[in-house]
């Protein structure tokens, strides 16, 4: 079985780790529970860290004259400076982090959907944006995998997030070894995954490794990491994934019968029309790669960018849907 480096992820502590919400509750997330054995989570609760206590009266973001403040309406307490100081120190202390998984809608941890109010009391929110902690995370680590637990329920966002954190963790391990040979191997094994994400960045990464300017190894690693991050900025387009499927299919098609080729073409059409997930044609090609012992394709991360056991997350979602009919 393929082994994976555990991604290091900073997570809002109230998601599956502690009863630290304002009302002493915890957020249950089957996705995070499933991820626990495969990920090195670093839980943090910014509101507890600034001594707001549990339980506590809720806080909210107030904006007046373009100046944002974090206040506790019931007490009038202003915790803006305390939150900013904690956040700066905490984020500066992080090393070797591959991503963040933060609580949606929280005035501290939220990354995009936090209510912004025009006044401390008796006012309706005027818009939504990032919370105080979440905003600093986005500014300081724009290249890392950053999501909230609600968005992670979307299968496309989840697959992109999982692919990103496991690829970045694998690269981190290669970088720690500072070996050109390991970097070349990493690039070779990720070639088709990268092709699906960005042909442009794949070309640039190849040029960095060709190293015609004779750069020293640390500079090569820095540039490679920068462009690796750029390659994973957006989820891949389905047309790019079809391109990769056809490339890999080309390696084994001459070994297949006409009926097998028709079966593949039919699955590809279904994937194109959104009737089946990418994993179906991917696993079909993978089974042929194993059968024909295609040694170049066997280690390609495109076929398994994160542990296959995490595909069980789909089963979790299916069982949740079943619960709706009870
Ligand atoms: S959302 Fe963030 S600040 Fe609020 S309870 Fe969870 S971890 Fe703590």
Q: How would you describe this structure to a colleague?
A:
The chain has helices spanning 30-35, 46-49, 80-93, 132-140, 155-177, 180-189, 191-197, 199-210, 217-231, 238-252, 258-272, 279-291, 312-323, and strands at residues 8-12, 40-44, 60-64, 67-72, 77-78, 99-102, 114-117, 127-129, 145-148. The chain is of the alpha/beta class and 326 residues long. It folds into three domains: 8-153, no CATH class; 156-231; 243-323, no CATH class. The protein is built from 13 helices and nine strands. Iron/sulfur cluster binds next to helix 2.
Properties at a glance:
5-stranded mixed β-sheet; 4-stranded parallel β-sheet; binds iron/sulfur cluster; alpha/beta; elongated; 326 residues
List of distinct ligands in this structure = iron/sulfur cluster
- End-to-end separation: 38 Å
Radius of gyration: 23 Å
**Residue share in β-strands:** 5-15%
Number of helices: 13
Listing every helix as H and every strand as E from the N terminus to the C terminus, the arrangement reads: EHEHEEEHEEEHEHHHHHHHHH
Helix content: 40-55%
For the biggest sheet, the summary is: 5 strands, mixed
Low-confidence stretches: 318-326
- Reading side by side through the largest sheet, how are the strands ordered? 5-4-3-7-8
Shape: elongated
> In the residues, how many domains can be counted?
3
Mean pLDDT, all residues = 94
Structural category is alpha/beta
Task: Give a count of the beta strands, DSSP E runs of length 2 or more.
Answer: 9
């Amino acid at each position: 079985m393929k082994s994976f480096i555990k991604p290091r992820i900073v997570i809002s502590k109230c998601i599956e780790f502690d009863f630290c919400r304002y009302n002493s509750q915890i957020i249950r997330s089957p996705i995070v529970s499933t991820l626990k054995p495969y990920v090195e989570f670093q839980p943090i609760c910014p509101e507890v860290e600034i001594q707001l206590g549990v339980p506590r009266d809720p806080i909210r973001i107030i904006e007046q004259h373009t100046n944002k403040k974090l206040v506790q309406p019931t007490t009038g307490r202003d915790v803006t400076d305390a939150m900013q100081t904690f956040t700066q120190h905490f984020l500066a202390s992080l090393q070797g982090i591959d991503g963040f998984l933060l609580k949606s809608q929280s005035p501290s941890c939220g990354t995009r959907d936090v209510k912004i109010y025009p006044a401390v009391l008796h006012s309706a929110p005027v818009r939504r944006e990032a919370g105080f902690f979440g905003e600093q995370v986005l500014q300081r680590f724009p290249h890392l995998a950053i999501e909230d637990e609600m968005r992670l329920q979307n299968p496309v966002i989840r697959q992109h997030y999982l692919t990103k954190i496991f690829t970045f963790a694998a690269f981190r391990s290669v970088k720690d070894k500072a070996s050109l040979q390991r970097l070349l191997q990493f690039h070779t094994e990720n070639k088709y995954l990268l092709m699906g994400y960005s042909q442009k960045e794949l070309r640039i990464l190849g040029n960095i490794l060709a190293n015609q300017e004779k750069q020293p190894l640390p500079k090569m690693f820095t540039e490679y990491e920068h462009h690796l991050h750029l390659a994973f900025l957006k989820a891949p387009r389905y047309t790019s994934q079809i391109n990769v499927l056809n490339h890999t299919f080309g390696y084994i098609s001459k070994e297949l019968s006409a009926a097998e080729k028709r079966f593949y073409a039919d699955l590809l059409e279904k994937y194109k029309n959104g009737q089946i997930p990418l994993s179906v044609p991917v696993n079909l090609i993978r089974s042929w790669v194993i059968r024909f012992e295609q040694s170049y394709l066997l280690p390609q991360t495109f076929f398994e960018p994160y542990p296959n056991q995490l595909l069980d997350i789909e089963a979790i979602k299916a069982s949740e849907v079943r619960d709706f009919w009870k």
